[in-house]
Amino acid sequence: xxxxPRIADLDLHLVSPQGTRLLLSENRGxxxxxxxxxxxxxxxxxxxxEDGFESAENDFIDDSAMFHSGxxxxxxxxxxxxxxxxxxxRAHSGVQFIEMSGLEPGTISTNALTExxxxxxxxxxxxxxxxxxxxxxxxxxxxxxxxxxxxASIEAANNTLAWQMQDVVFTAKSANTQIxxxxxxxxxxxxxxxxxxxxxxxxxxxxxxxxxxxxxxKASMKFGDAPxxxxxxQVLFSGFxxxxxxxVKTDDIIDGWTVLNKKVRISQNSSAHSxxxxxxxxxxxxxxxxxxxxxxxxxxxxxxxxxxxVRSSPAIGSD
Length: 319
Prior knowledge:
There is one protein chain. With about 325 residues, this protein is mainly β. The protein folds into two domains: about 170 residues, Jelly Rolls, CATH 2.60.120; about 70 residues, no CATH class. It is about 0% helix and about 40% strand. It has no helices and 20 strands. The strands form five sheets. Strands 3, 4, 6, 7, 9, 12 and 14 form a seven-stranded antiparallel β-sheet that branches. A hairpin with a 3-residue loop joins strand 10 and strand 11.
């Protein structure tokens, strides 16, 4: 039984005594991309381009030339705002931003120079038009490798914009990657867009993000053996081999172990788990040290100094 306030977000990593490794994982709410999505921590970022629509004409844009930059209007219209033009609406960066709809839904795109098989990060700011009653959606296309739906739903106070940041990390498939934003809203209200930036990133660490959409995974996940489950990495540091047979006194040191309680017996028999020797531990504490934990009869029987962290897997038998 597991008691946890967010049980659906737990990862359980189970390792059997034989070394079989299982991962039980479910994550609700982090991402809708898919199980197996790869994220990066970058150590270096080289900017490819950055555009916050500062050069666009402050008007309904129905022609690509009105951007005065590398953006193309593929369909419909968009509207370029200036901060303060409408009370409460301010740009994420600079003084201008766009709404992905004018008198009809708009689609815009730009082409970026990329290198095949290099890793890039697209970053942009988006927000919900505060006049819209429902969440607003926008499609983001990055070449042929990414098709993402962004939902703007956060309401800000006093009719202002609650800007959010979105990162899209991808591997370029060609020397020219198209980046395209498309409004999914049929009405005049649409997602606000600003601070679009593309960087080439040098990945330092890769890790997987899990969701419940296993059917979208590109490849299955496999795990190697647990390090201590590999035969060549298991270290038997105490098997009591060669120890004197018979009762052992308190404070005697046997095969590196200090005996803290009576009675302990070393036996030589073919029934040993490994080798021919084994130890029998007694719960008699009448003449020994008091138990460390009074809930554990017999208390501490062995003490072993290792000088470091040790994972112990003793073989235990009973009469």
